[in-house]
Amino acid sequence: MILVEETQPLDEDLPVAALRAWLRLGSGFELAPAPEEDRALAGFLRAAILTIEGRTGKVLLRRSYRMVLDDWRDRMGHPLPLAPVHRLDGVSIEDGAGRAREIDPAQYELVPDTQRPLLRPRGAMLPQVPRLGRVSVRFVAGFGEVWEDVPADLAQAAIMLAGRYYEDRGLGGPQIALPVQVSALIERWRSVRVLGGRGAGARR
Question: What is the pTM assigned to this prediction?
Answer without folding.
Answer: 0.85
